Amino acid sequence: MKKIAVVCNYVLRPDRIGGMDRFYQLYNQKLMEKEVEVDWYFTNYTPFDFYKGMNIYSANGGSVEQLFLTKNVSEQKAYNTVVTHFTELCTSFYKECHQLYPKANMIAVDHNPRPLEGFSFKKRIKKRIAGFLYAKYIHQFIGVSQYTVNHILNDYGIFLKKKTQVVYNGIDTNVFAKRIQPNKNKFIVASHLRASKGIQDLLKALSLIDNAILKNVVVDIYGEGPYEETLKKLSKEYQLEKNVFFRGSSANLNELFCEYAYMIQPTYMECFSLSILESLSANVPVITTTVGGNLEVLTNGVNGFVYEPGDSKALGIILEGIISDKKTIKEETSNLIEEEYYLEKMVSEHIKLLPCI
Prior knowledge:
alpha/beta; Rossmann fold; 2 domains; seven-stranded parallel β-sheet; six-stranded parallel β-sheet; 13 helices; globular; Glycosyl transferase family 1 domain-containing protein; Glyco_trans_1; glycosyltransferase activity
């Protein structure tokens, strides 16, 4: 039986079932149908029903790359292919994988966003050296957007062009309830709470809007992270406690998106956002920045509104325009996702990458 390993620097949680979780599950199912056995390696996992039937190894919060290497040094599993998600590219891990499995095909999928201001000169040099040393052990580089592919080549070397391609993220459009007539003053944020997600800019933008306009506005923020307390303090400082609510993590965002008029994603760095796809699938337009692959799926004024990252004033103008009925999105936003960015297409294209199929 053909056998592959998938190594993911990703934590599996029952209170956060998102697009990648659905990808992992369907990918596993489709490969089993083709009589391909899959071993999964994750950063952390405590068993729950969504992942029932999958063969999962957990690093228990440690290094998932080290888990894979240690386990396979002792057990010598016979893998035809090793696929990585969310790991750093071009590290010694790939060389060690090659030493363990010299005949296995190595596929590295890059989901990692780049900083808005770019890497430091020192880090750019280190990445070029890493590309020279370790890229030869990776047979295929996959970017989740054209933006990502461009940065793989920029970071590690243009010589990788022949073995680098785009496979766009996709989502399960069937699980998203569609927006019909939501309250136009109700907005959702679905994000990890860290500084690079720019939610502090959203709070600043709200503080710039006249109180008479703002009084009926609700912004629900779903997510957790190290910046949560800072954001709560800023919300209090800006006197937004009657407008902004921190809802924590939710496993049923697919049912919640449709209750909102817009999703706001004021991010500084992004590859190709699953949250944007999910929101659009629910027919909820998106307000976001021009970073990463956002403009590969969003058209300003058609399925959302875009502005330059960090520009709280511009975001405030967009929000005020929506609240005062001067700005609106009239077109269905779900059609594009159902036609181009659906989960079955993503899974199919990832399976096509496997030489053992």
